[in-house]
Amino acid sequence: MIIPTLVVMAVLAAAPQNQDKAEVALKAAMDKEVLDGNLKAAIEQYRKIVATYRGNRSVAARALLQLGQCHEKQGDTEARKAYDQLVREYGDQKEPVATARTRLAALGQAGGISHPSGITLRKVWAISGDLIGSPSPDGRYHSFVDWETGDLAVRDLATGQNRRLTNTATGRNYEEGAEYSVISGDGRQIAYAWHHKWQDYELRVIGMDGSNPRTVYRDKEFGDELEPLQWTADGKQILTALWRREPKEARIALIPAAGGPARILPTRAKSPWDPSLSPDGRFLVYGVRKADRRDSDLFLLSLDDGQEVPLVQSPAHDSKPVWTPDGKKVLFVSDRTGTWGFWTIDVVDGKPQGVPQLVKDGVTAVGGVIRPNGFTRQGAFYYSTNTSITDVYVTELDPVEGRMLRQPAPAAPRFVGSNSAPSWSPDGRRLAYYRGTYWNEPSTLVILSVETGEVRDIPVKLKQSPAPVIWHPDGRSVLVRTIRPDVLTNYWVDLQTGDHRIFRSFPMPPPGGGDISPDGKTLFHFTGGEPKLRGGVISCDIQTGQEREIARVPELAGGGFPVLKVSPDSKVLALRVTVDGNKWTAIRLAPVAGGEWRELCRFPKSETDGSWQIAWTPDGRNLLIVRRTGKDGMPELWRIPIAGGEPQRTGLSMEGMRPVSFHPDGRRIAFESGSRGNKTNELWVLENFLGAAESKAVSGAK
Question: Distance (Å, rounded) from C-alpha 2 to C-alpha 16?
Answer without folding.
Answer: 19
